[in-house]
Amino acid sequence: RKMNQEIPNPELQLAFDFVQMTNAHIFLTGKAGTGKTTFLRNLKTLSPKRMIVVAPTGVAAINAGGVTIHSFFQMHFGPHIPDNTAPEGAKGNASNANAFDKTQRFSREKINIMRGLDLLVIDEISMVRADLLDAIDEVLRRFKDHQKPFGGVQLLMIGDMQQLAPVVKNDEFEMLRPYYETMFFFGSRALQKTSFISIELKHIYRQKDEHFISLLNKVRDNKIDKQALEELNKRYIPGFAHADGEGYITLTTHNYQSQSINEVKLNKLRQKAHSYTATVEGDFPEYSYPTDFKLVLKVGAQVMFVKNDISRDKLFYNGKIGIITGIEDDIIEVICEGDDATITVEPAEWQNTKYTIDEQTKEIKENQVGLFRQYPLKLAWAITIHKSQGLTFEKAIIDANAAFAHGQVYVALSRCKTFEGMVLSSPIALNSIKSDQSITGFSLEVEANQPGEKELEKSKIAYQQSLLAELFDFDPLQRRLNHTLKIILENSSVLLPGVVATFARMNDVMHAELTTIANKFKSQVGQFLAEKPVVEGNEALQERIKKASAYFAEKTDLHLCSILQRLEIETDNKALKKTLKESLENFYQEAYTKSACFKLCMTGFDVKLYLEVKAKASLEKPQIKGAEKSLSQPASTAGAAKGASNPVLYENLRAWRNITAVELGLPVYMVLPQKTLLEVIDKMPVSEPALLKIKGFGARKVKSFGAEIITIIMDYLQANEKEIPEQELQAEKFPVRLKPVKGLTQKTSYDLFMSGKTIPEIASGRSLSIGTIEGHLCEFVLNGKIDVSRLVPAEKRKLISDYLLQHKVSSLSQIIKDLGQDVTYNEVRFVQNSLLFTGLI
């Protein structure tokens, strides 16, 4: 796509193409008035990349249609110490100086925005400090790719380094000096690890006078000579007098100067003062107010518009100067020099934006969270140079003799459209033009290394190749698996042996059928790219990609996703449960995203589609079965016994434990901890002295639960014709049989059903309801011991299974409502459990 340009501008188009077609980090610069703001506005409209816009100040963020850096990345207004060991000679309390807390919690929505982000636009980059850019890097690495600068997100940094510089207090500079050679953004340690490109816009839209442009360039580049200084100072007019209606605005270096001038001028007017209070709705912080909250105006006051007219008439723009000619009720009339008619001014609105994720499309959307409603005016006999950045004035009186910061004089002079429209209230001295040697050197480097079409084509090819390499790179997935396996091995004593075996087997398969094959395929890809480096236009390579993607999609689903989806891991340790759950979810997310990308590429590799599918898949949040179960609630028995030394006994004991926990209102681990349960299954004690030898059993617990546990073990031994362990024969007499043990009632129903009895017959014989018996049998469908065809007619099975496969609905009541009254609650559970067992859902 092409940029919408009234005047052809090759640099603007080149910048747009680099953003669209590459992943290169870009510094877009240019003199004042070269169209940087217009470029950003067009980019937001045209770019398909998932992007957000941030800026260092509230007003800059509102003007750019974005949010502040500090609010989005949740950073404090303080120095940020880079996330590594301090260099020798570093001073200051580094541990308390960071711009953000590394343990700080971000909302799920914000994390999803960062995970799906393709492009981060930073406006007014000249005001962004190096340490703040490094703080952004650390946050993005935390939620994206921690091995890549800025998490792999592309940066577009817009600004002019000869304009306003970042604010660094003396004590902050002393703290940061050991880490940074310069506090300008290009001193960022993260950015220096990239090969960012710089594009300078050359065409100046604001000024047309070549003589004036030449003078401005000399000020900007710190190349002003005696002749140029004399030429500029021709606009020094001592005691310059002008009428208020002529539209001159005074630019001052300090805020108190402009406030004083405006107050004095307003008080001199004898007309009645009218006060207008802004309306603020929702979240709109005070530092972002575009004009005064309480605006005091009089007829005859000189004002400046602080917003562009969005109507078809385009009667005013941000920075246009005029005089109030009338105030009546809620209508303010303003006349501007050169206009034939007055402008009727009505309240305008500014929106404070928050980025959110669209639940349906998974796209990043801008949502209004706050509103500021006020007349788009402010008193404008004077304004600070700082607040004038980005504005254009027909006539201005400049008092820059007290300039104290880099770029102030240039910003002030370059606000003027013409040389004749500029008046100096004091002559410009050489020492008032502040320069910074690091800026001078950086600017020369930018000018000397402008990229062109050749570099663009090279960057396009590199981008396509990097995405293809990423697709067939299983290292990130292997790292996720290694992390999970490490946690499991370190805690194997409280987990079922089958869990360790499952992940060890998964690790072996990863090496044999994924990583090894992918590495061989990557060497083939290299041969294809050697002949024709472009990926999208390489037909032979595309055919190989399709076949390889089909293979890897199948293997990833079969050996990773399907196993993780059905996985249940039970433990009593809350800290372990949380850590393991997080690790498993991250692993599954990585595998799920990889699978989605492979499935897309089965029809060929397309950069735009690849980015879309990858971003959406990374936000899907696939669920691991049973991941949200509370420790205090009984867990399903399906699949849980895999790996236990006596799986049937494990299921029986766990069923008893879970029911007992519910009846007593206790967490399951207080009835029988998982580690103790596994030891009971392994040693099968059938006497109280034997139980007391097991860690986790004391006299009180044996007294409370010992008889029931021993009864379950004895039933198991007798039912399976197993001998009682030799050591138990010499123990005290066996306990007296108690009433039937809770948890074995399901087994009884199962045995009766398998013997040929119908559900109504079992219910009648056991004096239980049909629904209760069906509930007993549901567990045995889930573990595959009963085929669902014995419980649900074929027509209903198809109806329910088709629905469950097409809809992600977890509420049984919703399913019943959608399918109609002919389908029962337990019929849905039977079919659902059967699909879970087969891995289809």
What's the number of extended β-strand segments?
20
Q: What's the helical proportion of residues? A: 40-55%
Characterize the largest beta sheet: strand count, sense, and whether it forms a barrel.
Answer: 6 strands, parallel
So what's the overall shape? Answer: elongated
Quaternary state reads single chain
First-last Cα distance: 42 Å
Mean pLDDT: 81
Cα gyration radius (Å) = 36 Å
In the sheet with the most strands, the strands line up as: 3-2-4-5-1-6
Question: Helical segment tally?
Answer: 31
Strand content: 5-15%
Summarize, please.
The chain is of the alpha/beta class and 841 residues long. The chain contains 31 helices and 20 strands.
Features:
single chain; 841 residues; alpha/beta; 5-stranded antiparallel sheet; 20 strands; 11% strand; elongated
How does this model look, in words?
This protein has 31 helices and 20 strands.
List the helices and strands and how they pair.
Blueprint: H1 10-21, E1 26-30, H2 36-46, E2 51-55, H3 58-64, E3 67-68, H4 69-72, H5 108-115, E4 119-122, H6 130-143, E5 154-158, H7 170-176, E6 197-201, H8 210-220, H9 226-232, E7 249-252, H10 255-268, E8 274-277, E9 279-282, E10 294-297, E11 302-305, E12 321-328, E13 331-335, E14 343-345, E15 348-357, E16 364-374, E17 377-379, E18 382-384, H11 385-388, E19 396-398, H12 408-414, E20 422-424, H13 437-448, H14 453-471, H15 475-490, H16 497-531, H17 539-566, H18 574-601, H19 607-617, H20 647-664, H21 668-671, H22 674-683, H23 688-692, H24 699-719, H25 726-729, H26 745-754, H27 759-766, H28 770-782, H29 794-806, H30 812-819, H31 825-838
Parallel strand pairs: 1-5, 1-6, 2-3, 2-4, 4-5, 7-18, 7-19, 19-20
Antiparallel strand pairs: 8-10, 9-16, 11-12, 11-17, 12-13, 13-14, 15-16
